[in-house]
Amino acid sequence: MSFWEYLSTRHQQLLTDAFQHVSAVFQCMVIATVLGVVIGVVSYRSGWGGSLAITSTATVLTIPSLAAIGLLIPLVGLGVAPTVITLTLYGLLPIVRNSIVGLRGVDPSLVDAATGIGMSRLARLCRVELPLAWPPILTGIRVSTQMLMGIAAIAAYASGPGLGNEIFRGIASLGSANAINQVLAGTLGIVVLALLFDAAYVLLGRLTIPRGIRA
What we know:
This protein is mainly α and 215 residues long. It contains 10 helices and no strands. The longest helix has 41 residues, at 3-43.
C-alpha cells in the first residue's frame, strides 16, 4: 500500500488524532502562558528572583520528556494527566524568560509618566508594561508551541492523545506493510500542525502588536 493510499483509508483516524494533538498542545499552552506570565510578573523586578525563575524552569528541560512522563505515571496514572503536566512544565521556560526580558525592557520613563498621572501599580502593569512586553512574550509562546508539538508525540507512551500514537504503532510494528506509512503520517502531521500554529501566531502578532512597536 502506498503512502497516499494509506492516508485515504486512515484519514478519519488521522484527523481524530490530529484534533486531539492540537487540543492537547493548545490547552497546555494556555496554562503555560498564564503561569509563565505570572511568574515573570512576580520575579522581573528582582535580579535573583528572575534568575531563580529562569533557572528553575530551565532545569525541567534537562529531564528527558520520556523519563518525565514515565515518572508521572505512578503518581497520576495513564492518559491525559501526565501529558498535560509534562507539556505545561516543558512550555514554561521560553515564556518565563521572555516575560522577564520584555518587562525589564520597558522604558522606565514611560512607567514614570504613568505613575505621574496617578496610575496604580496594577494599572501600570496591565496598561503600560504588559502591552509593551507583549512582542517578546508572544515570541516565547511561539517557541514553546513548536517545542510542545514534538514533545506531545511522546505522550503516546502513556496512552496520551495525539499523532504520537500513529508513530508508536508504526515503530512497534516495524517490518510490517504499513509501519513506515504510520510513522511518516504521524510525523508529517505534526510538522503541518506546527506550521499552522506558527502561521496563526504570526497573524495574532499582526492583530495585537501596533505597527510602531513591530518596527
